[in-house]
Amino acid sequence: MKCRVCRGQAVIDIRRHNAAFCREHFFEHVQSQVKRSIKTFGMLAPDDKILVAVSGGKDSLALWDILLSLDYKADGLYIGLGIGEYSNFSQEKAEVFATSRGAHLHVVNMKDSYGYDIPQGAVSARRAPCGTCGLSKRYVMNQQACKAGYEVIATGHNLDDEVATLFGNVLHWNLDALSRQRPVLPTEHGFVKKIKPLVRLGEREMAAYCVLRGIDYIVEECPMSEGNTGIRYKEALNEIENASPGTKHQFFFGFLDRGLDHFSEQAGVSAPELKSCSNCGASTTGEICAFCRLRQMATDPERVTVGSPSFRPRRRH
Ligand code: SF4
Ligand SMILES: [Zn+2]
Ligand SMILES: [Zn+2]
User: Fold this and answer.
1) Average pLDDT for residues 189-206, to the nearest whole number?
2) What is the pLDDT of residues 143-152, one digit of tens each?
3) Which CATH superfamily is domain 40-218+244-271 in?
4) Is there an atom of ligand 1 within 6 Å of 3 CB?
5) Shortest-distance atom of ligand 1 to CA 223
6) Which of 34, 203, 310, 315 is paired with 155 by a 20 to 30 Å CA distance?
7) Kind and range of the H or E element at 284?
């Protein structure tokens, strides 16, 4: 296996690109894919102050490393979810990385700052752990970014993540989610701009990047991920990709080119009026936002405010 660029010994082959790379040219490949996403989707200006959502996993640590190596001003945010040893280890990985790069890491502990952790919140709200976790992380990321004056939140969603989400949204014709599935969500209604610079890179590439760059990340799956449908979708999609390399890329980027505008227009026509949450001021379609309601259920279930059961803090397009 020879490097496509220098014909030296390759360390990784990427079948959807029909290419293999040596260590040095693999790093160039990863950087060029990220630069291409940043440029194509207008993700960043050179001086933007970026907050990277860091979980201690391969994608978020690789993303932080890539943004720093491209000379962006990027700090990290680690959210302590309270998921036992898993959270302790993942926090450690994030802290070790930050120290090794001389980078600044904010640490917010859900229990200390918001009065509940994910296992407790999921039981109290009778929601799936991943739903509780996702809602909590989105809210906390945005609040911390606003508080500390960051212009952009960057998350480590890679091509495999985006394709699995798209697949699930299509299977269930989740029109609202389809209208929002884009690599950049702009600043609006009190939400900080959100970007996904790894959308052109797969899970395997990110793992290889970390290994070759000496980035120590948490390999273990979150113990609360059992029953997570995204993992099953990824397995099914991997089979399809193995048989036909490039299918994931075509599915996702084909959707962005040919499907997204259609769903966005539909969502724009039917979007309900946004109000301010009466508790925290965040944009919401109900009286009180989904996060405040979850927090009330987790910390003070006797005094849950009555409101629309279907609301969630979300953007409208
Ligand atoms: S698997 Fe679910 S509960 Fe665990 S960190 Fe991910 S979203 Fe949160
Ligand atoms: Zn090479
Ligand atoms: Zn609220």
Assistant:
1) 96
2) 999 999 999 9
3) HUPs (3.40.50.620)
4) no
5) 4
6) 310
7) strand 283-284
